[in-house]
Amino acid sequence: MPQGIWAEVLIVGAAAVAGTVIFSQRVHLDAKPRAKGQAQTTPSGVRIIPYEELQKHTTRESCWIMVKDQIFDVTDFLDLHPGGAAVILKNAGQDATKIYESIHSAGFFETLLKPEQHLGVVDPATLPQVEAVQTEDEIRVEQARKNIPNINLMINLNDIEEEAHSVLSKIGWSYYRSTADTGSAFDSNIAAFSRYWFRPRVLRPVRDIDMSTTILGIPSTMPIFVSPAAMAKLGHPLGEINITRGAAACGIIQGISSNASCTVDEIADARQPGQPLIFQLYVNKDHKITEDTLRKIDKLGFKGIMLTVDAPVLGKRELDMKARGLPVIRGTNNSGAQGTALRAGVANSLGGYFDANLKWDDLAWIRSITSLPIVIKGVQCVEDVELALEYGCAGVLLSNHGGRQLDYAPASIDVLYELRQRRPDILDGKKLEVYCDGGFRRGTDVLKALCLGATAVGFGRPFLFANGAYGEEGVRKVIEILEEEIATSMRLLGVTKLSELKPEMVTRMA
């Protein structure tokens, strides 16, 4: 690079552990001639590191990685990485920006690493010349996005899902759409609604209706919420921020995944004043990390916790695994033995940190850290609803994780029906709030659950698909479609407000 050329370099500030602090510093890169491979330091103390030096650090004993021109020493982080050490080692000593950005939020490293682990910035004069070559899948996606239909032509959630299939990358689609094993739990989630039929009432004035409700005491314009789902950036560069903005515009509540591709700080910054957010918590094997997370969401003003309990280990998500979203590497699988397949896929880059020994008594530990209301997410039988009540939980989310965990797990609408038959007192007495998710795609699906006693219904994949296909506009379109379908169906059922929905308005067909 000729002398006299200046470059703008992003520097990660010393306060990175508390939250990503990035500022811009103008650095003279060629003030003095230097020998090849020689690192330099700016007057402010920022190291400029030759790319050749980065390439030397590729082992467990010394592992460096580069993301967006920033170089980090991740040697001590290898065993703490949620996806395991092997994924990082596979990309050590090189520019890992592309794979990093497809999985993690912009501030992932900065919020988990110590300030001293940020070594400096790469010397741009030493970067190898790399010709960008589009893959076959990238070419396909680019063409599909040019031809995507106008969003106003989408009349139901299945229409949006079809367009998402066209425009999402193979990796993104496979992660979102993947199911456990045979896919039977996923298929059952969809099919289960055909077992429940309405018993409408007629000759009732239904011109004016009210769909508003409260969830954990929080006002919502509709009896739906964003069920927490990970990795929204696989569909759109803004990730969960689009969903936050869309939820705010429509007045519904958003659940934030522990594995969101935006940090909680980024999402909190994107919300509107007073906008409620609920945090979905996976308990880390290192309980200190979970304690820090709980304190952080308290500080950020989150309104509740959805404690996910149906994923002590990850299910076998075959579509995701076959997409080869990450290098296929050997590691300890769920049997405790060494294996290859379960280390493949996006999901397995996220789930290695879960505490598989979590138990009901651990709720006391969580309550010692936060006073936020706790909803148990992933309840799949009446007995566990009863335990949640016994342990003083604010609610339960009946869910089989979208059919992504245990194959042949029951559909949430069926668990709700069984709860209605066996413990109507829990539902009618509002002893705790009961929510459902998994397979809901229509306003009629929502109303069936509400008739049986659910407080509200969560939607996960539909928001990921909509964000991937149309961004924030797609998120709002999902809510608009559901609003219209719920309003129409309420009128045809003969009700004007949610409290008028009763169990006798639904019958289960054999």
TrEMBL record:
PROSITE patterns: CYTOCHROME_B5_1, CYTOCHROME_B5_2, FMN_HYDROXY_ACID_DH_1, FMN_HYDROXY_ACID_DH_2
SUPFAM superfamilies, per database record: Cytochrome b5-like heme/steroid binding domain, FMN-linked oxidoreductases
EC number: 1.1.2.3
UniProt-annotated location(s): Mitochondrion intermembrane space
Cofactor entry: FMN; heme b
Cytochrome b5 heme-binding domain ranges (all copies): 46-123
Enzymatic class: oxidoreductase
Catalytic activity: (S)-lactate + 2 Fe(III)-[cytochrome c] = 2 Fe(II)-[cytochrome c] + pyruvate + 2 H(+)
GO MF term (any one): heme binding
InterPro entries named in the record: Aldolase_TIM, Cyt_B5-like_heme/steroid-bd, Cyt_B5-like_heme/steroid_sf, Cyt_B5_heme-BS, FMN-dep_DH, FMN_HAD, FMN_hydac_DH_AS, L-MDH/L-LDH_FMN-bd
TM spans (from-to): 6-24
UniProt-listed GO biological process terms: lactate metabolic process
Keyword field: Flavoprotein, FMN, Heme, Iron, Membrane, Metal-binding, Mitochondrion, Oxidoreductase, Transmembrane, Transmembrane helix
KW Metal-binding (keyword) present: yes
Residue ranges annotated for the FMN hydroxy acid dehydrogenase domain, each copy included: 149-510
Any one annotated GO CC term: mitochondrial intermembrane space
Coiled coil region boundaries: none
Record keyword Transmembrane helix present: yes
Family: In the C-terminal section; belongs to the FMN-dependent alpha-hydroxy acid dehydrogenase family. In the N-terminal section; belongs to the cytochrome b5 family.
PANTHER family: L-LACTATE DEHYDROGENASE (CYTOCHROME B2), S -2-HYDROXY-ACID OXIDASE-RELATED
Record's subunit section: Homotetramer.
UniProt protein name: L-lactate dehydrogenase (cytochrome)
Organism: Calocera cornea HHB12733
